[in-house]
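User: I'm writing a short report section on ligand binding and want a predicted complex to refer to. Could you take this sequence and zinc ion and write out the structure as tokens? A short remark afterwards would be nice.
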Amino acid sequence: MTDCLFCKMVAGDISPDTVYEDDEVLAFRDINPQAPTHVLVVPKRHISTINDLNADDAELVGKLYLVAQQVAAKDGIAEEGYRTVMNCNAGAGQSVFHIHLHVLGGRPMRWPPG
Ligand code: AMP
Ligand code: ZN
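Assistant: Sure. The structure tokens for the complex follow:
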């Protein structure tokens, strides 16, 4: 997807602050962090929203969480706790339409979220 910000990062046209990369997944620090740790975990393949996932994507989505686990461990927030969020569509706050798992931590997290 040529007009997708996260696809441009995957392609190397834009260089994010990468914290993890493998064949299928890229993780980088959010440009507008909402917590001391705020990392976005992104599949390299373009999928617009959660609504566009199909059964074949189950393993890939599971992998996003395994990467989140590694990111949290590396940033030293695994034990104190962290939040993972994937917004779906504008009403939930999705602004980049390439799915991404937010990993937020390093400060207390309130519930319910706004
Ligand atoms: P969402 O609102 O759930 O779609 O999340 C999109 C996230 O992408 C927001 O938290 C933005 O701050 C973040 N973001 C937008 N542009 C960039 C960028 N160039 N590098 C890193 N993060 C970005
Ligand atoms: Zn994309």
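A remark for your report: The beta strands are 18-21, 25-29, 37-43, 82-85, 101-105. The pocket of adenosine monophosphate (ligand 1) is lined by residues 5, 16, 30-32, 40, 87, 93-96 (CB under 6 Å).
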